């Protein structure tokens, strides 16, 4: 086929937007992180080199936010993967039309937008009149869900599991369904028990999907913001304030744009390190 | 009962019990919206003792302070425009990357792919300053236009276009079709499924976006539903009945859409996770 019109014409609208709203802001954002750039003050933006990054390493609030974010990832991601695997296995065992019904039932919470889901669970968690304590009180328990730093993050994680499990369950279910039936039949003929089939054949074949879902959830977990903002606003005692919330507050409450830009590059670096480690682990396991 | 149907039965019972965790909170939301405030702030059982529509009347009857329908309209406009724009520019670019002559293509496509790894938050501050300069803050453009620079759509459609046999385009070219008419009359009809998936994905993403509207929008009547509802909680946090009724109302359109497009949404979700 003879090339007639150049491909540039077709690509031009996208490439313009890509340059203006992705590449440009990336470069500009990095430059910004090297400046003291305060939006509402009279101080002119001044070049400070890596001073914003140095400040971030000293900033106790950064340590706290990073700690809260890591705790969220550590509590939410393994539970998500494990429970999604259990749910997908259960769904896979249910035949035909009713599978679609249960799948939809598990997916329904994800239809709630984050502010609605947050409002709902804040009400559940209310110490005085929330349904959780109303149900626990008859057996003599009252949990300070959102007012105790020890309980607040687990409460956020529980709500997150409820809200997001539908997604990975559906992905893992379709992974299970892609496993050729002939493999399982062959194993049965060789006398493998259902448990052996599950751990020796199904799980190893599911590994690529499983690892992909894990990586995506680690990345997503580091970016947690909406549910924390809605349920605790980062409290109590900043115990649930995530890195993204700290970036948000630095930029849009304190208008310290340069510092916020530096913090977001640090977040990117943290995510990149964890992603690379996971890919490395994947490759080592494969070989 | 033989062994197989026993397993099927127990799996179904397990799913039934397990799905209660997901469904019950949603049912509680629906029921609470019909409760008077006195029953919400003091737990008196799961069912309303006294069913009332007062919450809905108050939420819908006060469009000055609670422009719920306005927020709904804003959300619809922004999500449809974003999805349409993303689909248009991404499909043209993806086709160009997959098929047309484009000097420096590996470098360009490589750069696009590389940005897939970049978390959105890193762009938040610079895009805010850029929108501020453009004067787009507090307008729908702030949410629609930057989204179209995203790489996901190009990546996804590029993969699909590579799989379309070249003979089809060559036949169309021999018949005298221009590049554009080949694209519109041959490629687009073949790509309905992935294009629909991309549209739904972008729509849902835009509909649920929270951080974007929170940062880029500023006035009550410009808000989208998620941010409007969030603000609602700050201003009416003692009036749970109102907040929950508003929450229920704003979930209804999503729920109806899900009922209609359930298969596309879920299979799109599954497909996006399967791709590596």
Give an account of the 3D structure.
The complex is a heterodimer of chains A (287) and B (276). Chain A has helices spanning 7-32, 51-58, 60-93, 97-107, 114-124, 131-136, 149-164, 166-177, 181-189, 194-222, 226-231, 243-252, 257-286, and strands at residues 35-36, 46-47. Chain A is mostly helical. Chain A has a single domain (59-286), classed as MetI-like fold, CATH 1.10.3720.10. The radius of gyration of chain A is 24 Å and the shape is globular. Chain B is an all-alpha fold. In chain B, helix 3 crosses helix 14 (240-274), helix 9 (166-174) runs antiparallel to helix 10 (179-190) and helix 13 packs antiparallel against helix 14 (240-274). Chain B contains 14 helices and no strands. The two termini of chain B are 42 Å apart. Chain B is 74% helix and 0% strand.
Q: What are the low-pLDDT stretches of chain A, counting only 5+ consecutive residues below 50?
A: none
Largest sheet of chain B: none
Oligomeric category: heterodimer
Number of domains of chain A: 1
**What spatial form of chain A do the alpha-carbon principal axes imply?**
globular
What integer is the average pLDDT of chain A?
A: 89
Approximately how much beta-strand content do the residues of chain B carry?
A: under 5%
CATH architecture of chain A, by name, is Orthogonal Bundle
Largest interface: A-B, 98 and 99 residues
What is the straight-line distance between the termini of chain A? Answer: 42 Å
- Give the integer mean of the pLDDT values of chain B: 87
Number of helices of chain A: 13
Overall helicity of chain A: over 70%
Helix content bin of chain B: over 70%
Task: Report low-confidence residues of chain B grouped into runs of 5 or more.
Answer: none
